[in-house]
Amino acid sequence: MKNPFKAFFEKKSSGFETYLGLFLKEQDGALFYLEQKGNEIKIVKREKFIFTDGWTHLAEDVDEVLNRLETATGKSPEQTIFFVYSHLNSSRSVA
């Protein structure tokens, strides 16, 4: 199986890039601070969190965790990658 993210990360493989990985499930999620230098990608920091009120206050929950990650690393990610748990993908949804 081909890696669908390979082309994404190879686009700018010559420099140093920072990414925020946002992984969402039904009741919780995780933020990943990723750094890419050349062809190497590493997870610098990650933090799991539980939604305070379902998806209603998701933006506030993510902002709070992102603030902690930025404070801990002293850096802000340049781009965001969204990962959504496959259970959330409805069989009726359009790809």
**How many runs of DSSP E, i.e. beta strands?**
4
Low-confidence segments, ≥5 residues, pLDDT <50? Answer: none
What characteristic shape results from the CA principal axes? flat
The whole-angstrom Rg is 15 Å
Helix content: 10-25%
Proportion of strand residues: 35-45%
- The helix count comes to 2
Which key features would you list for this structure?
95 residues; alpha+beta; Nucleotidyltransferase, domain 5; four-stranded mixed sheet; 4 strands
Any overview of this molecule?
This protein is α+β, with helices and mostly antiparallel strands and 95 residues long. It has two helices and four strands, in the order αβββαβ. Strand 1 and strand 2 (28-37) form a beta hairpin. The chain is flat. The relative contact order is 0.23. The mean pLDDT is 82.
Quickly describe the structure.
The chain has helices spanning 6-10, 58-73, and strands at residues 16-24, 28-37, 40-50, 79-84.
How is the secondary structure organized here?
Blueprint: H1 6-10, E1 16-24, E2 28-37, E3 40-50, H2 58-73, E4 79-84
Parallel strand pairs: 1-4
Antiparallel strand pairs: 1-2, 2-3
